[in-house]
Structures are given as C-alpha cells and as structure tokens.
C-alpha cells in the first residue's frame, strides 16, 4: 500500500496537520466519523482535470466526479474565467424583486435545450431543495385547479431523491431512510424497472415494459389521490447504480397522461450528458424523447463548481398559479440563494462547453472504452454483472454467482466488501467510493483512455482482494 496515506494517519507532515485540525471540528457528510480511525481522510490542496492532489504531492484520480458533479474537470480554464468575470460584476442579489443577466440567460438556454413544453424555470440552491420545489408545486397545482385531494406521490422502489425530509420521503434506499421513517410522509412505492431482476434470457426492454404495466395499474387505482410520479430516468444512482430501459419513460408518460398525474423527472444525477444524451429523457423514444411535467437539474448543471439547482415546468402549470394576489395561488417558496449569480454564470460556462465541443460524441467513445476495459469482469466468479448506461458503469459483487435473478446471493452488508476496493484503489492513486458491494465508475468527461485503463485495473485488483477474503 502506498505510504503517503499511512504516514498522514500516523501524524507527520502537512496532511496530518490538516487531518488533526479537521477532526477537532468538522463533521463530514455521509460518514461514520469513527471510520476515519481506519481510513484516513485525504486533505485536498488542489485539483486539475480529473486529478485531486493532497498537501504532500500525492494525486488521486477523481473516479466518481466528486459525487457525480464534476463533468469538465477541476480548475477548468473556461469555467474559471467565467466565474472570475462574474465576480467583478455581481456575486449575488436576492431574486424575488430583482433579476440579473446570468439568471435570465440561463433560463432561456435551459428552456431551449430541454423538451418543448418545459418553459418556466424555478431556481433552488441544491438538488434536494429542487425536489421539494417540484413536490410542493405539483400538489399546489392540483389544489389551485380544484383538486385538493391529490396529496400523494408515487415513487419507485430503490429510488433516491436527496436527504431533506420531503426528498427522503420519496426515496427508498433503506440505509439513508429507515432511521428517519417516523418523520416522513408515506409515498406509494411502485416496483422498479431496475433490470438487475430480469429473468434469465429476458431483455432489458421486456423487463422494463413488464414493470411499466405494474405502474400503470397502480396509477389507475390511486389516480384520485396522487399528484405526481417521481422517478430518476434510466439510472437509480444512489440505489446501487441500478439501470433500466428507456422504453419505461415512454410508457410512464402515457400512463401519467391517461390517469391525470404529473411526471417528475429527477435528472439531478443523470442530466448533462451522463447517460449518453444531454438529458436522459431524450432516450425515451427512438424518434423523440418524452417531456416530463417537471424536470429537476443540479450536479452537472454547474460542472461541479457551485451549488445550484432548477425545477423546470410547463406554461400550463405556471398559469395555474398566475392570478391576483388575494387568491393566494402564488408559489411562496424561496431559498436565500435562489438564482445565485455566480452559480448561474458557472452554469452558462458549462452550457457553452456543451455548445462548442463535441462532448456527447466524445462520451460515446469514452463509454465504449470503459466497456472494453471492464468486460473481462463479467466472467469473474464474484461479479453478478457489469452494467452500463453511457458514462456510468457499475460492477456488482455477489457472494454466490448463480443464474438470474433471485438466486444470486448478495454479500451481507455488514461485511463491507466495498471497503477493500476503496483502500486498494486509493493506494494506487484512484479515488472511488463503492456503494456497498457495487463498484462503479462515473468519471469527469475529460478523462482519457489511459486513465480509464488505470481505473479498470485497480478495480479488478480491488475486487479480487475484496472477494477472496
Ligand atoms: C444527488 C441527488 C439528489 C440530491 O441532490 P443534493 O444536491 O445532494 O441535495 C437528488 N436526486 C438525485 C437523483 C441525486 O442523485
């Protein structure tokens, strides 16, 4: 194992100094703080492209885009310039009574890039907040049009929509949710189209279609009380990178129309080129994508620079709120940093890169390379499957590999099989953070073929170590 990490832990050098000061006061997200006793944190001094560098010169390949946000690399010159320019004009002003150039231009461009019916942009400052916006807006729409009984939401099993109470309520990842269950409203959970559970020989498409029928039945039964269905298009990222066929999105759109229910597409993780198209909803159909009633974007929106999120919706929904003040139909929701100018300027710089460079085409090449670099793992005795949607590739480890679906025995979560993979990768200069027994690659789009090969090599070695124990 490389020594810088261990040295840092043992208490010499600049890294150790930052670690000590951090542990005195900082409480880290999504961490059991006691784990830092066995797995030292990495103090980051700087970032460049796909690499993060610590205070002693050790570099780490950011294999999961700093939690799926960084798409064009750290210290990207174009984005840096845009941010610096904006800083000299306006960092932030409240946006209830004021507007500013970057917010207007970003709204125009997002409306231009997303499906036609989406014409209005409501800003929030992180993904979870955008989820809250969509849930409240959908409910409020139905109330404004005289259907106040539509108070419930349908979500998919194994879904994830964030950590605030409303967002957590419509999620279904037990690890994050169970503790807080007494605090949460109850969604109606629909079977997931997640193709991991397809039958032997069954195609992704056939399985996702079968699951769409169940969703339609559920909506038929609950239409009177349901405001909206919320889903993550194509990949349930926090739900162990489980994936499904785009046909499901088309079927869901039809079901929502048939039963008078809103369709909320949470593209917070999958938007901005991650799945092989600019937005995942575009893949719903061979000819054209589907348009949800609400589309939520964050993460890649600012290329991993600034906290910013948007909820796009239709003119039709907007009009249900547009009335004299005394009708109290307005959407009186706000966050202090709504429409932050630095965030909007960063997002504009991000969109400029999409407009000027063949990002999606290059992603197709990189995705093909990720596939080739990992295909040998499909035959590994403890790999259930290697699955991929565009720039997300996941390798699921299993204890007993048998024929699909239900007789593949997972490892007990308590064994934490992802940890040895994490540790081995780190010792080789690659940062990855497996979701329990699922190792995945979700790199910035500026990664190159050699760097993908490095990720694939250390993942393969790490999986060998983790599964031979
Ligand atoms: C990350 C994520 C969120 C929450 O966004 P935050 O900015 O972390 O609050 C919501 N939905 C999906 C699909 C996500 O991946």
Classified in CATH, the superfamily of the largest domain is Type I PLP-dependent aspartate aminotransferase-like (Major domain)
What Rg is obtained from the alpha carbons, in whole angstroms? 22 Å
Largest sheet: 7 strands, mixed
- List the domain count as a whole number: 2
Terminal CA distance: 17 Å
Helix content: 25-40%
Strand order of the largest sheet: 4-12-11-10-7-5-6
Ligand kinds: pyridoxal-5'-phosphate
Going by helix content, strand content and strand pairing, the class is alpha/beta
Q: Tally the helices.
A: 15
CATH class of the largest domain: Alpha Beta
Which consecutive residue ranges, at least 5 long each, have pLDDT under 50?
1-8
What does this structure look like?
This protein is of the alpha/beta class and 469 residues long. It folds into two domains: 42-75 and 359-466, Alpha-Beta Complex (Aspartate Aminotransferase, domain 1), CATH 3.90.1150; 80-356, Type I PLP-dependent aspartate aminotransferase-like (Major domain) (Aspartate Aminotransferase, domain 2). 38% of the residues lie in helices and 15% in strands. The strands form four sheets. The protein has a seven-stranded mixed β-sheet with strand order 4-12-11-10-7-5-6, sandwiched between helices. Strands 1-2-3-15 form a four-stranded mixed β-sheet. Helix 1 packs across helix 2 (13-25). It is globular, with a radius of gyration of 22 Å. Residues 1-8 have low confidence and may be disordered. Pyridoxal-5'-phosphate binds next to helix 6.
């Amino acid at each position: 194992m490389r020594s810088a990490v261990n040295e840092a832990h043992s208490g010499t050098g600049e890294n150790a100094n930052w670690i000590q000061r951090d542990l005195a006061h900082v409480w880290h997200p999504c961490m059991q703080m006691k784990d830092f006793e066995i797995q030292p944190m990495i103090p980051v001094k700087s970032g460049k492209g796909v690499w993060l560098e610590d205070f002693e010169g050790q570099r780490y390949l950011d294999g999961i885009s700093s939690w799926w946000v960084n798409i064009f690399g750290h210290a990207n010159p174009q984005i840096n310039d845009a941010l610096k320019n904006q800083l000299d004009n306006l960092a932030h002003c409240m946006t209830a009574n004021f507007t500013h150039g970057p917010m207007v231009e970003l709204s125009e461009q997002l409306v231009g890039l997303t499906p036609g019916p989406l014409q209005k942009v409501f800003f929030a400052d992180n993904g979870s907040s955008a989820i809250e916006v969509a849930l409240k807006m959908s409910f409020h729409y139905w109330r404004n049009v005289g259907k106040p009984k539509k108070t419930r939401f349908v979500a998919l099993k194994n879904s994830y929509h964030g950590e605030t109470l409303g967002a957590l309520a419509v999620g279904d990842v037990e690890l994050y949710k169970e503790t807080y269950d007494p605090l949460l409203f109850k969604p109606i959970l629909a079977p997931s189209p997640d193709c991991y559970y397809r039958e032997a020989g069954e195609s992704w498409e056939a399985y996702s279609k079968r699951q769409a029928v169940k969703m339609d039945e559920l909506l038929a039964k609950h239409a009177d009380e349901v405001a909206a269905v919320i889903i993550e298009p194509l990949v349930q990222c926090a739900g162990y990178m489980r994936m499904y066929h785009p046909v499901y999105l088309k079927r869901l759109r039809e079901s929502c129309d048939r039963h008078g229910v809103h369709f909320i597409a949470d593209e917070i993780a999958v938007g901005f080129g991650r799945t092989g198209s600019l937005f995942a909803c575009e893949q719903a159909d061979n000819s054209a994508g589907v348009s949800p009633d609400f589309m939520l974007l964050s993460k890649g929106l600012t290329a991993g620079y600034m906290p910013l999120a948007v909820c796009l919706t239709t003119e039709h929904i907007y009009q249900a709120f547009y009335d004299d003040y005394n009708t109290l139909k307005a959407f009186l929701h706000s966050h202090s940093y709504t429409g932050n100018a630095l965030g909007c300027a960063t997002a504009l710089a991000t969109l400029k890169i999409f407009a000027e460079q063949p990002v999606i085409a290059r992603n197709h090449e990189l995705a093909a390379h990720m596939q080739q670099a990992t295909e040998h793992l499909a035959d590994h005795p403890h790999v259930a499957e290697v699955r991929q949607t565009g720039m997300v590739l996941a390798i699921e480890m299993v204890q007993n590999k048998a024929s699909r679906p239900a007789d593949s025995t997972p490892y007990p979560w308590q064994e934490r099989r992802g940890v040895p993979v994490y540790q081995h990768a780190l010792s080789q200069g690659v940062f990855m953070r497996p979701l329990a027994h699922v190792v995945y690659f979700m790199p910035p789009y500026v990664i190159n073929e050699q760097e993908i090969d490095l990720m694939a090599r250390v993942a393969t070695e790490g999986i060998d170590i983790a599964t031979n124990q």
